[in-house]
Amino acid sequence: QVRLVESGGGLVQAGGSLRLSCAASGSISRLNSMGWYRQAPGKQRELVAAITSGGSTNSADSVKGRFTISRDNVKNTVYLQMNSLKSEDTAVYYCNGEEWGPYREYWGKGTLVTVSS
Questions:
Q1: Mind listing the pLDDT tens digit for each residue in 33-70?
Q2: Strands (E), the chain
């Protein structure tokens, strides 16, 4: 079992920055990928960025050049550095962990990011 706990959300003005953290505990060595998803009011949850155990990353086009995902394997923590925030980035951000064989996924409870214009 894996437990994911997010932190770092809050209220920020447009153009500002926030860093989200996701602390993982449990059987984290089995995780092949960790990432961030977000869900805005009335919209579906969408992938923001992900990073594999090998360090490969991918991110949504809407955040490329503004958001950076990274991981600290010593602290078992994944970060999402968010710069140049826009009002459309307002959402609940969820940490996700995946095992690929067999497939299993884990979710944190989410952290709210509100960007004021």
A1: 999 999 999 999 999 999 999 999 999 999 999 999 99
A2: 2-7, 10-13, 18-26, 33-39, 46-52, 57-59, 67-72, 77-82, 91-100, 103-107, 111-116
Long-range contacts from 48-56, C-beta under 8 angstroms, 24+ separation: 48/80, 48/93, 49/80, 50/96, 51/78
Asked whether the beta carbons of 6 and 95 are under 8 A apart, the reply is: yes
Under DSSP, the state recorded for 100 is E
Distances 46 to 18, 38, 54, 90, 92 between C-alpha atoms, Å: 19, 5, 23, 13, 11
